[in-house]
Amino acid sequence: xxxxxxxxxxxxxxxxxxxxxxxxxxxxxxxxxxxxxxxxxxxxxxxxxxxxxxxxxxxxxxxxxxxxxxxxxxxxxxxxxxxxxxxxxxxxxxxxxxxxxxxxxxxxxxxxxxxxxxxxxxxxxxxxxxxxxxxxxxxxxxxxxxxxxxxxxxxxxxxxxxxxxxxxxxxxxxxxxxxxxxxxxxxxxxxxxxxxxxxxxxxxxxxxxxxxxxxxxxxxxxxxxxxxxxxxxxxxxxxxxxxxxxxxxxxxxxxxxxxxxxxxxxxxxx
Length: 270
What we know:
The chain has helices at 43-48, 75-88, 101-112, 128-137, 139-144, 146-150, 156-171, 184-196, 199-203, 225-230, 251-254, 256-269; strands at residues 4-8, 11-18, 25-29, 52-56, 94-99, 117-123, 212-219, 239-248. It is of the alpha/beta class. The chain has an eight-stranded mixed β-sheet with strand order 1-2-4-3-5-6-7-8, sandwiched between helices.
């Protein structure tokens, strides 16, 4: 199904809006280096549960939503995009689902705009404060996150795009790289998410009060157990922790049934 164009301010996003028109809205936020297509095996399961899905290619991934300048990719802008998409589609509130960077945005969205979030299901990346604490105090998490420091190097794009994006493709062991990221403008925009982040983005986030489920997988190469377990301390609402044994970082691709089941459970109990 072709994506529809949704305009938010001066930006135009490619958005997959599917499922029953009268279903509760589920906003699906993808991570790096993927697109909304990472949820392709999740959305039919959500539709079967009577839910309507909204899956955008986020800022930098949609060609029409690729502003210039690293500062345009700060977390406040990413959260504002999510709110703007809901507004443009006439959706007052949604169940929010995020994986990887999409989870980081989803946590911020739930913390800053709880009136727009019916429930939160985050995969892989825990609450920003829990992740920040793990990065400071846990040698294992520092080692896992070492790749992020490399993304600040000026030659990163050349390295990742060499040999038809061989290194970029190798990062995603289960799933596909977003096609737009196999071209320099898209890749540079996606890397700007990393290059624009600050310590305050992670450390100055309030606890989340909406009903929340967090999924972490034991085979995750990038996110460790410390940030996963620490997340519980930053959720004041009803909280469920799900540990997926033997699953890699790429939860939407590798465990779509488990992810969809948790989203459906959250939506049914709201």
